[in-house]
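Final report, section 2: Outcomes. Of the targets proposed, Glycosyl hydrolase-like 10 domain-containing protein is the one most frequently requested by collaborating groups, and we therefore present its record in full.
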Amino acid sequence: MKHLKYIYIIILLVLVAACSKDDEGILDDGSHSQGGGQTSSSVLPGKELRGVWIATVWGLDWPMEKYDADVQKKLYTDYLDLLVGYNMNAVFFQIRGMADAFYESEYEPWSKYITGSAGVRPDYDVLGFLVEEAHKRGIQFHAWLNPYRIATRANKNAAFPKLDAKIPMELVKDYEKIRVYNPALPEVQERIVNIVKEIITKYDVDGIHMDDYFYPSLEASETMNDGAEFQKYGKDKFKNVEDFRRNNVNTVVRNIQKTIIETRPEVIFSISPAADMERNYNTLFADVNTWAKEGWVDVVIPQLYFATGNDATSFNLRLDLWSQYTYENHLLIGYGIYKFGDSQYGSKFQSSDDLMKQFELASAKPKVKGSVLYSAKNLVENKVGIADAVKAIYGKKVLPPYLGRTAAVLPPTPDNIRLNGADLSWGAVSNVAYYAIYKDNGKERKADLVGITQGTSFKLSEKGVYFVTSLFKNNAESEISETVSY
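The predicted structure is given below as tokens.
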């Protein structure tokens, strides 16, 4: 009986202490209602990257031959605001399409697509502006560049544009319709890697991105004309010139990622190959399968610009194929929204229904981590309601996923969560890029992401229970903070 007496006393003391602790969680100003200071038992919503390509070569999406700085800025921020409205979270912006630059470069001239004339400095920091405005809106900025292309011409009888003095002529190779950096030269391979290092050192980009332009796709009457390079650099190492070419591209891909890891390891390296694996391997000499197996590229985004169907080139069969050949990289899907509403691409592209089917098929593949749409101006045009379909598909806001090379290291959890009226605030966490604000929907139910900010406060728009997480630049997300009730 004496032991029972002591047990009752201990239980009573524990209950009193618990009640006292709860009382301490309620602020005098009434910012916390009952339940404030508790840890949420809700579930974070799933993550996916939702991006769009903005093409600048020939001014396609931007700046559309508009050379006034204020007009250019507004065109870009209008795109970003559109993405926010569609719950998108990433932009893949072409900053180097023709051995030109949207920034002050040691290696290449200012792009003619900014001012109308190559080599002319604009009156604002273009890439700095592009990155800053994206980050203000919680949108990731992936810097898209083409590794080899320098210029194009209509045919072999036309002249290429004058080569800028920054580009040594001995590094260049000309074909009937395209001028490129010679992929076989070690100096070119080093130069491309140094250009990437220049970008990630000078600017706070979230990713480096390349599309499917590697070795040029030539006219039927042409050859690659690289026998001399093979004799000098490859004949003692490779059985044939095709393996030599693939190794030249492999060297660039491998060394770009190596340089990123050594310089700014949080930067994501992605490549968007053509959908046809055979064409990649034997025409463009892009050995995507090896890149994936070796983990030389972080993210692969195949351009599955096809309708659904039963033939070998259908979206679903290509999706099945690419899903099987994802090894040490993450998989996103590229969608060709530019085809919708254009009669030359067939009946399935004359309504938005097939895009809905494509997304449904991709969502059933566990390896698929998101989507990128080509291209931005097609969202604005909204032919056959394609932008409306995108908005419906994306539904609620989500964060982009962690796409790192190793297991994620989580940032510290925000603390000192408090309210002053509708203003939610919290203590700053060092070395984080963003904070995510969630509305709690109850035990074991998915919370709603209501906002992302670089600051330590956020204005709430409706009543409810809220919590906060912090995110590193690589999208690794902290544990859930304590909750507050508004």
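The two ends are 48 Å apart (CA to CA).
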